[in-house]
Amino acid sequence: MHGLPRITVEVPVLNIGSRPTDYEALGTYVNGLRREQGLHMTLLHIGILPEFVQDIADWTKGRTSTDLATRRTADWLRGLPILAGFSGTAERLISLAGGNVSGLEVQVPDRVHDYQVFLVQALHGLLEELQVDNVDDFILSSPALGFRYPRWVPHVAVGRPKTRSGGSWEIRPLTVDFGPSQIRNGRLLPDADST
Question: Residue 195: its pLDDT value, please?
Answer without folding.
Answer: 44
